[in-house]
């Protein structure tokens, strides 16, 4: 499956309650009274939704509520059973599914550049035109109408390319790919060499570069490490369009979204804020709903008591029938099925020594490529460590080495006294017995004393009702991963190794696991990119970078702040090292020199002692010349007073624009330099500067146009 990029001609969708700011925006997608069911079970009934321009929307709800299906319906990939969908003709939609994307046949750079197919076609056409003009000139037809037409077409193409920055495709591709975690050495690799997670990153890069008016992203953070996730978050904040995202990453949603839509029980409820706001507001709404529900139930009980008491009395028959009709007309309030406060505790871990694990001089390699060289790491009692770093840096490999599941080429692995390790990774789901039921799987693993709480534990991991009697063999990949995690939690251990434990958990399940880990008295190492999950748990960070692992004392937020300072320092150093003399330009390339205003031109054409339109014929002084000259002097003073500050500001701005354009050309040249491309840090810093410079330059052009308009207006008003 490929990421979807739909044009405005496809069908569409909308939301029931939106604030005044949203109301003023043009609706890009409007859905009304949507219905969709599978096997007689309704996902949606009477669901309405609206997506406007420049939105940041989170779609949330329990697993299985239909969030992904809703996106597919909006995109026209799935047909609804009923309802109306309207899509604005002025928009395009880009879609990133959860998985299932594969690329092959091109290098990474070439595949990603296909996001600019239309610009590449313009470049190709421009080359064709240049060849055609050369041929006509060589044939002595340099002034023929054909040449003039070709020159005109070439001018239009260059205008389009300039307007859409078509001369910096390579720089844009590198900026996004490096931001998503690719390295300079990856640019010429075949896309078929990349694993599934990296394939999703390629698809995401292409969508970002295409810049559709609506980005629809289904769990985009699942395949990103924490550094790439931070970059994506910042990129999407400044995205020029709407973003609709499904995610279980609370921190990502809090930092990005401004509107939350909950899909539950076949309906859409809107909250005018981010995820944290949604949780608070939802609790208030539930309390109000609960109160209304209880009042309605009390009224129903009172009515039924009256009916039961007087049902068989002829004198009350009319009143009884009236009450029964009233009951039939009542629109019953339905309360959501809530699990209440579900919690789970790990078995009490056996007491270990102070040192849990010591790795000394460890070397690990796959083929000729080393993952670690001479690695030293000590785990102590009570350690709570987050493994952070880019994908492929060796986080999962080190987790398996600690768990004694991965051989090493050199060095020693020394467990401490009485250390009992419990390890979880998603592939463990493959080891489950497919013939057993979900409940039997836990019953076989549970120690004495924990048998009674198994149904509650399974509820924490989304196995409710008859789900516990399903055979493991019929479970989906995500369900098997959740069951493997639940099974692992039953084993008494004092050192937990968890590799991406939250990937298939919804927000409630993550909260249950998070709270259990907070109360756990043993030690653990967690490989995860979920910042909100890690923040209250980790007291140390193991940073993976360039084949080395270093321990950072502090939480995830502290580590991210350190990373931010390092990036800023690198950007400042790159800017300082690459800064040279700025080419001077008298006039900004995108700004044309203004023609003299009509009044000013007329005045310049008049010789001294003549009146405009008098054909320079000298006239004798008139009696009112003194008053006229005084008024003209006042007008000149007023004109100078109004125009001079504007003209001075324009001159300063034109100088600033010339400097900005000069710096922009320098960065473009640097990003095209192979030597610079060997340093991803420098490329990243230059790309950030280039993006900021492009934005600032656009503002400068707008400011210049405003100044020019103000000068023309002042000129007209003071011309007399």
Output the keywords:
single chain, 720 residues, alpha/beta, Rossmann fold, 6 domains, 7-stranded mixed sheet, 6-stranded mixed sheet, 22 helices, 19 strands, 45% helix, 17% strand, globular
The N- and C-terminal alpha carbons lie at a distance of 69 Å
H/I helix tally: 22
CATH architecture of the largest domain: 3-Layer(aba) Sandwich
CATH superfamily of the largest domain: P-loop containing nucleotide triphosphate hydrolases
Low-confidence stretches: 4-25, 580-623
Multimeric state of these chains?
A: single chain
Top CATH class of the largest domain = Alpha Beta
- How is the CATH topology of the largest domain named? Rossmann fold
Helix/strand/pairing category: alpha/beta
How much helical structure, as a percent, in the residues? 40-55%
- Major sheet characteristics: 7 strands, mixed
Strands of the widest sheet, in order across it, are: 1-6-7-8-4-9-10
Report the sheet-strand fraction. 15-25%
């Amino acid at each position: 499956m490929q990421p979807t990029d739909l044009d405005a001609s496809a069908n569409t969708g909308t939301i029931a309650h939106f604030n005044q700011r949203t109301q003023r925006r043009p609706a890009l997608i409007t859905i009304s009274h949507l219905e969709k069911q599978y096997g007689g079970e309704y996902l949606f009934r009477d669901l309405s939704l609206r997506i406007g321009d420049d939105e940041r929307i989170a779609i949330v709800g329990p697993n299985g509520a239909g969030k992904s299906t809703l996106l597919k319906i909006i995109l026209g990939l799935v047909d609804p059973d009923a309802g109306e969908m309207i899509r604005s003709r002025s928009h395009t939609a880009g879609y990133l599914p959860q998985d299932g994307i594969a690329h092959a046949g091109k290098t990474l750079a070439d595949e990603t550049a296909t996001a600019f197919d239309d610009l590449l076609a313009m470049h190709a056409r421009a080359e064709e035109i240049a060849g055609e003009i050369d041929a006509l000139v060589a044939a002595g037809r340099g002034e023929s109408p054909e040449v003039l037409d070709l020159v005109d077409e070439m001018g239009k193409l260059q205008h389009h390319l300039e307007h859409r920055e078509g001369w910096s495709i390579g720089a844009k591709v590198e900026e996004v790919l490096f931001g998503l975690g690719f390295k300079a050495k990856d640019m010429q690799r075949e896309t078929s060499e990349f694993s599934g997670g990296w394939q999703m990153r390629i698809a995401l890069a292409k969508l970002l570069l295409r810049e559709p008016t609506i980005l629809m992203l289904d769990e985009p953070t699942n395949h990103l490490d924490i550094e790439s996730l931070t970059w994506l978050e910042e990129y999407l904040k400044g995205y020029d369009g709407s973003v609709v995202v499904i995610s279980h990453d609370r921190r990502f949603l809090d930092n990005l979204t401004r509107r939350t839509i909950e899909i539950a029980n076949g309906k859409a409820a809107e909250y005018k804020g981010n995820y944290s706001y949604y949780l608070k507001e939802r609790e208030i709404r539930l309390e109000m709903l609960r109160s209304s529900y209880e009042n309605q139930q009390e009224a129903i009980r009172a009515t039924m008591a009256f009916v039961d008491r007087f049902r068989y009395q002829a004198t009350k028959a009319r009143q009884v029938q009236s009450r029964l009709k009233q009951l039939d007309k009542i629109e019953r309030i339905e309360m959501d099925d809530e699990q209440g406060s579900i919690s789970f505790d790990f078995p009490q871990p056996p007491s270990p020594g102070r040192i849990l694990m010591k790795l000394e001089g460890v070397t690990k390699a796959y083929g000729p490529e080393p993952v670690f060289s001479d690695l030293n790491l000590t785990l102590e009692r009570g350690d709570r460590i987050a493994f952070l770093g880019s994908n492929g840096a060796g986080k999962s490999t080190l987790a398996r080495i600690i768990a004694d599941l991965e051989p090493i080429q050199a060095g020693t692995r020394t467990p401490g006294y009485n250390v009992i390790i419990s390890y979880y990774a998603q592939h463990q789901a493959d080891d489950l017995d497919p013939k057993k039921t979900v409940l039997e799987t836990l019953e076989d693993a549970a120690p004495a004393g924990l048998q009674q709480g198994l149904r509650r534990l399974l509820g924490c991991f989304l196995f409710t009702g008859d789900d516990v009697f399903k055979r493991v063999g019929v479970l989906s990949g995500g369900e098997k991963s959740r069951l493997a995690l639940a099974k692992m939690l039953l084993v008494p251990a004092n050192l937990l190794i968890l590799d991406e434990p939250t990937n298939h958990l919804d927000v409630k399940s993550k909260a249950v696991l998070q709270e259990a880990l907070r109360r756990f008295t043993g030690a653990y190492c967690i490989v995860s990119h979920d910042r909100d999950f890690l923040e209250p748990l980790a007291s140390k960070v193991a940073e993976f970078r360039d084949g080395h692992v270093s321990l950072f004392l502090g939480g995830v937020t502290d580590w991210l702040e350190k990373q931010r300072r390092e990036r800023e320092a690198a950007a400042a150093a790159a800017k300082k090292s690459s800064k040279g003399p700025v080419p001077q330009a008298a006039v900004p390339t995108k700004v044309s020199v203004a023609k003299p205003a009509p009044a000013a031109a007329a005045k310049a054409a008049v010789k001294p002692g003549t009146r405009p339109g008098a054909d320079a014929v000298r006239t004798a002084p008139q009696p009112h010349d003194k008053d006229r000259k005084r008024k003209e002097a006042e007008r000149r003073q007023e004109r100078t007073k109004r125009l001079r500050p504007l003209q001075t500001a324009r001159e300063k701005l034109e100088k600033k624009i010339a400097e900005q354009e000069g710096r922009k050309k320098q960065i473009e040249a640097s990003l095209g330099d192979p030597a610079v491309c060997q340093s991803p840090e420098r490329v990243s810093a230059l790309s950030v500067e280039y993006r900021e410079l492009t934005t600032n330059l656009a503002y400068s052009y707008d400011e210049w146009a405003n100044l020019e308009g103000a000068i023309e207006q002042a000129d007209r008003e003071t011309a007399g």
